[in-house]
Amino acid sequence: MNLERLEQTWRELNQIAYSDKGVMRLAYTPQERQAVRRLAAMCEARGMSVRMDASGNLIARREGKEPHLPAVASGSHLDAVFEGGSYDGIIGVVAAFEAICSLDDQGIATKHPIELICFACEESSRFGVSTVGSKAMIGELDIDGVSGLQDRDGKTFREALAECSLNGWPLTEAARSAKDLKVFLEMHIEQGPVLESAGIQVGIVHGIAAPTRLQVRVQGKASHTGTTPMDQRHDAFLAAAEIGLLLEEAALAEKAHGTVGTVGACVVKPGAMNVVPDTAELKIDIRGTDVTSKATVLNKLYAAFRYVEEKRGVKVEWTMLSDEQPVLLSEDVLDSLERSCRSLGISYLKMASGAGHDAMNMARRWPTGLIFVPSKDGVSHHREEYTSWEQIGVGARLLEEEIKKWAVVLDADGRPLNEEEEGSQPNQMGESA
């Protein structure tokens, strides 16, 4: 594996939409699509076939000796949050690309095809809905629910796709058969402090916490700040603040289960210093790997809505943006990753992911593995996000090892070098072969 080339690929892609404030490659913007096209050109230069599906996912394929077999897939995303970091998502894309380049350098042929997948709209920053591309790929995207969603400028999701020349509506055309892939592998920065604190080289993820997201509107009554007594106000902002505090209380009560709740956005209107706010619009995110615990927090949030309505004389309306279920990843892939770590001398920790990833959707249809590399100080979604190239290289070596194992390396006579391992791996439906 050529770590200098890996870093150069990262730098070339990250030149697009980067500034001293961070990365601004929002989903389906010209900048994000430019980065995807640049990646496509890199893949084509390597002799890979490239296609774009209806949702904007880029799929680049290195053919195997038996093209009819299910492919071994790896990748992540290139879109970013507002003023985001330089490692989130893109590291998984460039590591998968470098693994394929490394196979080419070594003249390695594989029995199964290998695919690099760059997913569209993994981040929720623009439209409030995440992992759109992977949901579309497994045929579980709520198309009616997302089509009318708007960004900060009032542009709808469907309009944004049309501007990108993604006119393959409906997005059901992006769905793939369960027979298409043998396994999916994703490498990602941890986005938390656990690995760095423990001095561990990689994390092997066994489960992914799924988000429940709501858009909430608190309707109060505007009035003059100087003439309206405090006990006669219907302040939408204070009602929203109380909802946030009650959400925090509910999540803290579930600390043992790792469930968290966040008010990530609050827009107060009319926004004048001398007017009591009449409207507050919130975006709320609840996450956890324990289904019962997450439901407990959500129910307490609903109770908070009713309590605040009665206490403060406001009206609370809400829309469920998404309610996803936590995902447990394939035990067969977990075991394979552990074996590879031991053979390569890599220290590892089996852990849960508090953040959502495309891997959680892919796991609903195909055996899936997720590899974490450390994040300095646990910082993510920020321009100070950082992972050293030494740490990235360790994860990339593990990823390459797994790709070779699952794709089945062939000798000069076309015979499998790891045929015994192949026989112990699950088939594309996740069952023992």
UniProtKB/TrEMBL annotation:
Keywords: Hydrolase. Residues 424-433 have a biased composition (Polar residues). GO terms for molecular function: hydrolase activity. SUPFAM superfamilies: Bacterial exopeptidase dimerisation domain, Zn-dependent exopeptidases. Residues 215-306 form the Peptidase M20 dimerisation domain. It holds the Pfam family M20_dimer. Residues 414-433 are annotated as: Disordered. It comes from the Bacteria. InterPro entries: Amidase_Cbmase (IPR010158), Bact_exopeptidase_dim_dom (IPR036264), Peptidase_M20 (IPR002933), Peptidase_M20_dimer (IPR011650). Belongs to the peptidase M20 family. This is Zn-dependent hydrolase.
